[in-house]
Each structure stands twice: as structure tokens, then as C-alpha cells.
Amino acid sequence: MTLDKYTDDLHKALRFHEISGERTGEVLAEVEAHVAETGEDPVDAFGKPRDYARQVAAQLDPSTGKRSTGGIVVSFIAIATLALFGQTFFGDGIALDEAGVGYTLRDVVAMPLLLVAVIAVALLVYLARTASENNKLYGGGAVLVLIAGLGAQVLCNKNLDDATPVITAPSWLILTLGVVFLIGMFAMLAQSIRRGRVRYPKKH
Is the pLDDT of residue 38 over 60? Predict the structure, then answer.
């Protein structure tokens, strides 16, 4: 494997483990320096990118460049919630209908189920990419949850009332919530991007 290909794959794998940009830069620099000095194939020297990223992550704790799994989970749930409800509320409220925005029983049930399915699939994919064992089991679980989530949406569409509003709110309020949620989502994404930006060690 070429060095460029290896470091590119390694970078992606380290990002999946939520390794900080500073520590990622150090790891990539170490790989590049070793290969430049020895001419050795990076796979022979360090193992497959995903496996080496897992080794790096296992050696770190929150104080040395890696967020805890709990922090990653909470962050993702927050971003997913803000994204789903933000775009929904923004789209519903932008017309500023004087009659307000009504949500039916189908809306009230289907949206939370969709959110749960999205979060569950994403977390299972994350575990499939980062866990040292049972990767295929997590991957299969993600597929099953995806199918179940789609099935739940079909059942909601067929069996729940989509005509009578059970909740009605002013359009301006729904639009405001949508804007606030979307701003929060973009702020969290921007913070994650800044944290993950690769920073190579300074050369002396």
C-alpha cells in the first residue's frame, strides 16, 4: 500500500475513533517518518489502518486526546436530534401560515421512532468500525435496525391518523425553534470539525 493511501485511510479511521486533531497529526507524522527512513511498507510496519487506529485509541484517555465513548454518544444524539427536528420545524414554519402548524398522531409517533432508528443505526455502525471484536455482529445489527426503522415508518403511515392535529402551535414559534435547532447543530458540527483538524507537530 502506498504511503499516501495508508495515511489517508489511517486519518479516516482515527477520526472515527474521535482522536483529536493534534494526536492524529502526531500519529501520521510518526508513520510518515518511519516509512521515509526505512522504506518499509506501512501495512507491514503498523498493520492495517483500521487496526492501527484501534491500537492508538486504546492507549489514550480523554486527557490525552480522545473523547470518552459516553461523550461521543451524547454528542451524536444531540446533533441527530437537532438536525431532525431543526429541518422539520424550519420546513413546517417557513410558510408562516396564520392557522399555525398542526402535528397529527402519525407525526407525533413517527418522528421520534425515526430519530431512535437513526441514532441506533449510527451507533451500531460506529461500534462495527471501532470495536476490537464482534464487528460483523454490530454491522448486522445496524442492517436489522435500519429495516425495522423503515418498517415502523410504513406502519405509522398506514395505521395512524394523519388528518386530525393533536398538537397545534403558531408558525412563528415552530420556525424559531427550527432556526435555533439548526444553528445549534451547525455549531456542534463546527466544533467537531475544529477539534478533528489535523495538526502536525512543529518541526524544531
Answer: yes
